[in-house]
């Protein structure tokens, strides 16, 4: 309300009148539409009022080290806090990203995520961090992170990366050691090792639990199955082709 008044009143006193016309924090719609600064003020009000303006909620205390041994099965947005009197410096340290992951799999990659569920000190802090190891030709297939943007840093090797926006435009680059690349929140993206050997990257996320939905699994390996007729029509495939993909991807 203060920001709205500050911006609008400098343009036209109708904005001040709109604030006085209601006991709400927001101006009366009929008066608001006559405010010359409407198109400046409205987006600001939307941002301030929308819970989607931030990724994870802000913490209400200095820290909330996750009590991963808690057996009460309390459902909260994150994890139950450990008693602060029992928190030590060790709760904020993790060595889980120190060693290379096992890339002996069909995709040739190993993703190790330090999140609120695995590194207790990250609970409620709104961040997580991942190590990604790649065999030669290793691929992180097309996927999305519904709750976070991702910043990728190439520590070793050469990676071909890209994401697709909601107009189906592809943004793709080849990255060398030391390069950064941003994958916007919620957009489909991929990472391919195109170098002559193995590769290593690290990724930061603006959520303690970014989530990851692999497109091929989300379509052809669900439990229960998505009906064949839907996939047949969506991808213009025969029933035999759909069943084959479900068998190959879903096992």
Describe the structure.
By secondary structure, this protein is α+β, with helices and mostly antiparallel strands. Helices cover 23% and strands 23% of the residues. The strands form two sheets. A five-stranded antiparallel sheet has the order 1-2-9-4-7, with no helix packed on it. The protein has a five-stranded antiparallel sheet with strand order 6-5-8-3-10. Helix 6 crosses helix 7. It is globular.
Instruction: For the largest sheet, list the strands in their spatial order.
Output: 1-2-9-4-7
Rg estimate, integer Å? 24 Å
The helix/strand order is HHHHEEEEEEEEEEHHH
Strand segment count:
10
Main beta sheet strand tally, sense and closure? 5 strands, antiparallel
Helix content: 10-25%
Strand content: 15-25%
Shape descriptor reads globular
List the helices and strands and how they pair.
Elements: H1 2-9, H2 14-20, H3 29-32, H4 38-49, E1 109-114, E2 128-134, E3 139-144, E4 150-156, E5 159-164, E6 170-175, E7 180-183, E8 188-193, E9 199-205, E10 213-214, H5 215-220, H6 228-235, H7 239-250
Antiparallel strand pairs: 1-2, 2-9, 3-8, 3-10, 4-7, 4-9, 5-6, 5-8
Give structural attributes.
251 residues; five-stranded antiparallel β-sheet; single chain
Short description:
By secondary structure, the chain is α+β, with helices and mostly antiparallel strands. 23% of the residues lie in helices and 23% in strands.
């Amino acid at each position: 309300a203060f920001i709205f008044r500050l911006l609008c009143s400098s343009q036209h006193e109708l904005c001040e009148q709109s604030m006085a016309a209601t006991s709400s924090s927001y101006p009366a719609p009929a008066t608001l539409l006559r405010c010359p600064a409407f198109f400046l003020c409205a987006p600001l009000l939307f941002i301030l009022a929308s819970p989607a303006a931030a990724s994870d909620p802000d913490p209400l205390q200095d820290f909330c080290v996750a009590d991963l041994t808690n057996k009460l099965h309390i459902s909260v947005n994150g994890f139950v806090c450990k008693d602060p009197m029992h928190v030590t410096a060790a709760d904020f340290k993790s060595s889980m990203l120190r060693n290379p992951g096992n890339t002996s799999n069909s995709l040739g990659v190993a993703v190790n995520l330090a999140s609120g569920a695995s590194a207790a000190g990250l609970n409620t802090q709104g961040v997580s961090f991942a190590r990604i190891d790649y065999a030669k030709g290793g691929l992180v297939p097309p996927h999305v992170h519904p709750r976070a943007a991702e910043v990728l840093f190439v520590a070793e090797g050469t990676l071909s990366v890209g994401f697709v926006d909601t107009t189906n435009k592809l943004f793709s680059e080849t990255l060398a050691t030391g390069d950064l690349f941003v994958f916007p929140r919620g957009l489909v993206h991929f990472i391919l090792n195109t170098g002559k050997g193995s590769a290593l990257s690290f990724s930061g996320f603006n959520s303690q639990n970014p989530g990851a939905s692999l497109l091929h699994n989300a379509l052809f390996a669900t439990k229960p199955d998505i009906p064949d007729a839907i996939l047949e029509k969506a991808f213009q495939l025969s029933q035999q082709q759909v069943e084959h993909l479900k068998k190959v991807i879903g096992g």
